[in-house]
Amino acid sequence: MTAPYELNDDSVVVVIGSGAGGGTLGNELAQKGVDVVILEAGGRHEYDAFTNDEWASFGQLAWLDNRTTSGSWLVARDFPNLPAWIVKAVGGSTTHWAGASLRFQEHEFKVRTTYGEIARANLLDWPITLQEMEPYYAKAEDKMGVTRTNGIPGLPGNNNFKVMKAGADKLGYKDCHTGRMAINSQNRDGRNYCQQSGFCFQGCKFGAKWSTLYTEIPKGEATGKLEVRSNAHVLQIEHDDGGKVTGVVYADAEGNQQRQKARAVCVAGNSIESPRLLLNSASSKYPDGLANSSGQVGKNYMRHMTGSVYALFDRPVNMYRGTTMAGIIQDESRHDTSRGFAGGYEMETLSLGLPFMAAFLQPGAWGRSFTTALDAYDHMAGMWLVGEDMPQESNAVSLHGEIKDQHGLPVPNVHFDDHPNDIAMREHAYRQGAAVYDAVGATRTFPTPPYPSTHNLGTNRMSAKASDGVVNGHGQSHDIQNLFVSDGSQFTTGGAENPTLTIVALAIRQADFIADQMSKGVL
Amino acid sequence: MKTADKRPKLSRRGFLAASGGAAVGVALVTSAGVVSSPTGAWAMEVTALKPETMATLIQFARDIYPHDQIADRYYAKAVKGHEEQAAKDEAHKAIIEEGIAELDRLAAEAGSTDGYRGLGWEADRTAILHSISTTPFFQTIRGNLVVSLYNQKEIWPLFGFEGESADKGGYITRGFDDIDWI
User: Fold this and answer.
1) What is the CA angle B159-B164-B167, rounded to 5?
2) Are A328 and A448 in contact (CB under 8 A)?
């Protein structure tokens, strides 16, 4: 019962992207009776088409359009054309994500006030508070079926978690458990419970992990108010003489350009494509790109402080069995400058299959130091370290001066330098991660460098003042009333937590705002 | 505790074309258009590259990612793409032939009378690899190999990785939490 809309129907809200932000927003609006067209650049692969094969899945789901990198971050050296490991498919990166669903801490909405001025950091308080977000966090947790909320039990701990938990206990960490996960621990919302199959990153073949692909999107389609057009890659947002946006131009599956008119446009293409689209939509009226009077579009790119610690033991672990992100230590997520840095980080179990472990354990490494680690793959445990990184204006998504994509548009360049605070936090996290495993008898540990970014944030940030950022506290652009940003690029700062829950909560909140503005005739 | 034999269960002929060629005292045998194992378990037809080049490439691959439990035929399969690419692309063929010739030249400097493969100790070969590890040739070979070697499902059991699990119902009843020493 999907609703087909005409290209010249200018009453529809166009949402660009179908992931955590766009997929959720599209459904929420449709549930309120708003006519919505979601334009998704990628194809539609239902969950039975997912594959437990890392490279094959990467080819099926990952965003592989050309991108370039610059800056001193290791990703630019190790993966020069793959700054981010995100998805081009219906469901966006909710097909690939691990499922960790953590609320921001109160101080993380006001870091400029809490941390004070930090050199080279472009810190700013969010224009919204935790108290304002709490009702929306509650709705998001219920929608996504987050464990340890709403009376939903935690997931059972797998082998990888048990190693982490034993080490955490030995170190005296108090806050270690199997996480708040948007993965069913019991049948819920018409979806299976987790079968502990591993391969969460390759798309859950049981549908146990929340993804907009098989929750928000079919629910929205069932209202008759939502059309999802896949293989529809938006190239430009258009506006009228008055400056309001009027629609978008996209390339369809055959590469032909189509023009979809719109009442309002909501950009949710993740933090590289969203600013790129605004910049590529520059016009004579908006020569620096849409919504860019502040000059902040594409700036303040954040990707979380990340790293991993893998460890070998004298006895088998088989970490790859079961939930990829099977548990968490939260003791280091507090803001405590006695550790030598502002903000905090989470420690979350992680596992890769053998093919990806070979590619990511120590990119570029070779020889016996490396291969003996892989020889002990089944004796390995692992964790991911994820913490707040500092927004810096010079860390930016910009348009490449020469290289064009398949549609003739400039590809994005992603520039990133670690802030000294990021480096201090990473060094601390590596030490603590190794200490967790040493406490249970690790024979060798590996401080694994960052993977291509999965948490891309901040490039269209929220701000109270129009001069400080791109959108207001509702994700509405300061410059153009009917242009919204609906993904993680809205984040003013990154927090220590995995961002998806906050993206979903913001989308629910934004849907309320848009529907309200429409009912008042303002939009 | 009984130790399982992790070797893949493959037919004795292997998955590359079988060959009767055999010789004593060398790791890999080359003859006109063919590289084969000394036991005759497998052989690879080589037309674009010189057979000696392919034999050295196989040794080179093993020295980059040495796993003593992995038989030569998996390394051979992992670098076979260079033969296929060389057949279509003269520039690629030149990169490989010149790169291997350079390995042989460096080996001669190190005292080998029989090229890179003639250096008996892995450490002597590895010293050469360190000296060329930043070259495009080395990076091309290594960058391909990290996928083409480790993405062979046949070798996953050697590392204890079980591969696809959804088709077996996941691990919920198959040991996701069976660790017994923690």
Assistant:
1) 145
2) no
- In sequence order, the 6+-apart residues with CB closer than 8 A to the CB of B91 are none
A429 burial (CB, 10 Å; 0-12 / 13-18 / 19+) is buried
- At residue A69, φ and ψ (nearest 5 deg) are -135, 160
Is A241's Cβ below 8 Å from some Cβ in B? Answer: no
How far out from the chain centre does Cα A268 lie? Answer: 11
Which pair of tokens denotes residue A30?
């449709």
What is the pLDDT, as a whole number, of residue B28? 86
- pLDDT > 70 fraction of chain A, expressed in percent and rounded: 99
The distance from CA A348 to its chain's CA centroid, rounded to whole angstroms, is 16
Chain A touched by B174 (CB under 8 Å): yes
Please give the distance of CA B134 from its chain centroid, rounded to a whole number.
20
CB-based contact, A367 to chain B, within 8 Å = yes
Return d(Cα A501, Cα A282) in angstroms, integer: 32
Q: Is B177 on the interface with A (CB under 8 A)?
A: yes
Chain A nearest CA to B110, separation (Å): 20
Instruction: Give strand pairing partners of A349.
Output: A383
Residue B29 exposed, middle or buried by CB count within 10 Å (0-12, 13-18, 19+): buried
- The pLDDT of residue B3 is 56
Whole-model pTM?
0.95
> Torsions phi, psi of A476, nearest 5?
-85, 135
Flag if B176 and A206 touch (Cβ within 8 Å): no
Residue B21's pLDDT is 37
Segments of chain B scoring below 70 in pLDDT:
1-27
How far is the C-alpha of A347 from the C-alpha of A361, rounded, in Å?
17
Task: Locate B1 and state its tokens.
Answer: 């505790």
In Å, what is the CA distance from A475 to each residue of A28, A31, A112, A128, A289? Answer: 15, 20, 20, 11, 17
CA distances from A109 to A103, A484, A502, B84 (A): 11, 20, 11, 56
Any alpha helices (H) in A339-491, and if so which ranges? 354-360, 368-375, 420-438
Residues paired with A177 in a beta bridge: A328
Closest CA to A364 of B138, B94, B22: B138
Q: Answer whether A105's CB lies under 8 Å from A333's CB.
A: yes
Return the half-sphere exposure (C-beta side, CA atoms, 13 A cut-off) of residue A104.
29
Give the pLDDT band (50/70/90) at residue A117. Answer: very high
On whether the CB atoms of residues A35 and A5 are closer than 8 A, the answer is yes
The mean per-residue pLDDT over the stretch A60-84 comes to: 96
pLDDT at A41 over 60: yes
Q: What is the ipTM of this complex?
A: 0.95
Coil/strand/helix, residue A104: coil
Beta partners for A227?
A37
Neighbouring CB atoms inside 10 A of A58's CB total 20
